[in-house]
């Protein structure tokens, strides 16, 4: 067995991606060089952000290349090691291709511990979304007991974890989301107050009512008018982890206009900090341990949907845009 | 001698303040209570920001009250102490009234050392403007050798010190100001590049040319379109101390509209931090020591204009708006 399947980007989608965006190719299994390991793919993560990388525009991650293997979060097993950092049988998390086997430099991989949590969790609650929530909230937001934490995009993979961690830290937690179903879900997760920004007549007013003591931490997943409104309610020394700006993703820069933030920041000595989870990669282990512990203690609710079979990766990805998944969507490779 | 002169706010000015805004009153010299000291006024600071406090609008400092003594930065000598923290003959910096004598709680005063620098310096380069520059740049901006620091409002009392400290720290320093005279002054102070935002056709282009390696620190004194332009050139992990937004002071909130910053912060993992110098009051001594040392070593150029006589305080203040002062304007009380 020296050959394997891989999935390439055949063309750049317009609007909703379709199956013909993907191309299955049979290629040689690569041979690890010095300092590298060979990894057998166990779980593949499919995520909405990958849609963005299919487009040919500049961001903090470069676009996928046409006719090359698509890359994303993967959990795999080391089957051959030419690095002292890993042994055969180790499990790793990496940013790897949609293929059955990958080689990678040892330093680009994170060893993961299957005794702490199921392997799949390292692509969800213990992986990118969980880690993003963890570091954005705790390293930047730093909520103290009794403070008010507002989260936009609160029902998303990141926002729902942010709110639960904020509750663990003793904060008054307010979630903003766009449907009553989502609001009900947030209530289930223990959010104190929820706001449906689509049906609220006066967002400013709704925030004021939900935050009688003002806003100490605003975890911003969306940008746009929702953030404009929250910025009117900042307390002194408020912290704003800026995680996403989904309201801006589909409009041009020249259309993304709103109230300037400078005077609001000066009046409150508030902090806004943009971040991506990769900034904290050296503290991955610390976060995984805390998150796993909270899951174990049922303080952190986590849902995942797992489809089996390499060939089903495209369907799993396309399903994201039809709302087919409950919680994190993964593909298990047999 | 049990009476003294004080200057009260007689009415709120419209447009440029005039002399009839002020009223001289003779009042009793106050008697210090337990924990207080009695201070003889030596130097009074007159500052443009005080114009704002003459208006009845909300900000981080409340407006001056009508028919009460006007307050500002004062250096004085302790003439009677009912606090173990101070002795007769100590010199102090405080936020005190425009009057010949004041009482104040010991904890609201900072002891100053006349052996480090002339007393008057504690109201300028070692005082509010110098301290604002020091903490905004060093505590928030944290410039590293070889990094690029851009300063708006660069020729002001704060901006001109920021640029000089940034040079001391080995940065490439770019100043933005509004006249060629100011640009010449910045060059004298050692700024590497200067931009006249009033005569530059394309501010974006000018910033790009002045900052071939991008912007690591943007010390923002002005907000508005100048800041909108600088925000397009941020490097990864850029830091933006937000010190002032003078472009917004004379317009309504609903007019202060511009490009949203969220996506720019996310793409660069940049930090914006609003602040006022009072946030760092417990580190005043540390800053005063460094600033005094740099002045002594001629690394920091500092200009002051001193008028003598209590009765001349209103004229000194009104002169600020006629551009009569070179550098920091003070009044020495005989």
In short:
Chains A, B: Its EC number is 1.-.-.-. Two copies of one chain form a homodimer. Chain A has 334 residues and is an alpha/beta fold.
Describe the model.
- The structure is a homodimer of 334-residue chains.
- Chain A is of the alpha/beta class and 334 residues long.
- Chain A folds into two domains: 3-124 and 303-332, Quinone Oxidoreductase, Chain A, domain 1 (Alpha-Beta Complex), CATH 3.90.180.10; 128-278, NAD(P)-binding Rossmann-like Domain (Rossmann fold), CATH 3.40.50.720.
- The first copy, chain A, is 24% helix and 29% strand.
- In chain A, the strands form three sheets. In chain A, strands 3, 4, 5, 6, 7, 15 and 16 form a seven-stranded mixed sheet that branches.
- The radius of gyration of chain A is 21 Å and the shape is globular.
- The first copy, chain A, starts with a strand and ends with a strand.
- The A-B interface holds A 59-60, 220, 223-224, 227-228, 242-245, 248, 253-254, 256-276, 279 and B 59-60, 220, 223-224, 227-228, 242-245, 248, 253-254, 256-276, 279.
- Strand 14 (271-274) of chain A pairs antiparallel with strand 14 (271-274) of chain B, so a sheet runs across the interface.
Q: SSE layout and pairings?
A:
The structure is a homodimer of 334-residue chains.
Chain A: E1 3-9, E2 22-28, E3 36-45, H1 49-53, E4 71-81, E5 91-97, E6 101-105, E7 110-112, H2 128-141, E8 148-152, H3 159-168, E9 172-177, H4 180-188, E10 193-196, H5 203-210, E11 215-219, H6 224-230, E12 234-242, E13 257-259, H7 262-268, E14 271-274, H8 284-296, E15 304-308, H9 313-319, E16 328-332
Parallel strand pairs in A: 8-9, 8-11, 9-10, 11-12, 12-14, 15-16
Antiparallel strand pairs in A: 1-2, 3-4, 3-6, 3-16, 4-5, 5-7
Helix pairs in contact in A: 2-3, 2-8
